[in-house]
Amino acid sequence: MHPAPAFHVEDRAVLLGFLRVHPFVTIAASVGGRPMVAQSPVVIRDLDGEIALDFHLSRGNVLTPHLTQGFRAVVLATGLDAYVSPDWYESADQVPTWNYQSVEAEGSVAPLNEAELIALLDDLSAQEEARLSPKTPWTRDKMKAGKFEALLNGVMGGRLFVERLEGTFKLSQNKNDADRLGAAKGLGEHPIAGLMRDLS
Asked: Which domain of life is it from (predicted)?
């Protein structure tokens, strides 16, 4: 996360809302001294007040063999980003920068059992099919008998128990209003420009 306090987000509701909108995450871990990265969509779980992120990986993924014994990981969700030219500021002697939104979740990862994995895959499909409304949602009932079970053998599920959750929403909050709004104007119709204007 960016170290500047102006960009720091700790509001759990805001952070979880961001993860719901941007559920496709990067999972980073160091297992046996080797850095490893995987990508997966997540489903947020509230387990009696404890937040967890459920995900699945292909059996051939570099992290998959380590799910059985578990490991610590950081999950990164990214959103909007945009280059900001110093030409757009009112003030002189500025430098280029990048505005962006991201959320990190850190914690221990444990494997899902088969029932939990099936629940995850069903919930993930329902979560993403809902975004396609008014389309009739796809469910695995549309698959021929035995096909889902055969494909299930090709993936493993994991659950990250969230111990740290924080975000960076870098939207030129460290600039004065004239500079921030000048940068937003320079970005034109880019969606991040609207977020920068909303800070006024």
From this structure: Bacteria
CATH number at residue 151: 2.30.110.10
Are residues 45 and 140 in contact, defined by beta-carbon separation less than 8 angstroms? no
How many CB atoms sit inside 10 A of residue 103's CB? 24
Q: Which amino acid is at 112?
A: L
Q: Is 105 exposed, middle or buried (0-12, 13-18, 19+ CB in 10 A)?
A: buried
Q: Indicate whether this model's pTM tops 0.90.
A: yes
Owning domain of residue 136: 5-197
The number of distinct structural domains making up the chain is 1
State the Cα–Cα distance between residues 106 and 119, nearest whole angstrom: 23
Burial class (CB in 10 A: 0-12, 13-18, 19+), 88: middle
Q: Which residue has the tokens 């102006």?
A: 6
Spatial distance between the Cα atoms of 90 and 86, rounded to a whole number of angstroms: 9
pLDDT in tens, the chain (200 residues): 888 999 999 999 999 999 999 999 999 999 989 999 999 999 999 999 999 999 999 999 999 999 999 999 999 999 999 999 999 999 999 999 999 999 999 999 999 999 999 999 999 999 999 999 999 999 999 999 989 999 999 999 999 999 999 999 999 999 999 999 999 999 999 999 999 999 97
Residue 154 parent element (H or E): none
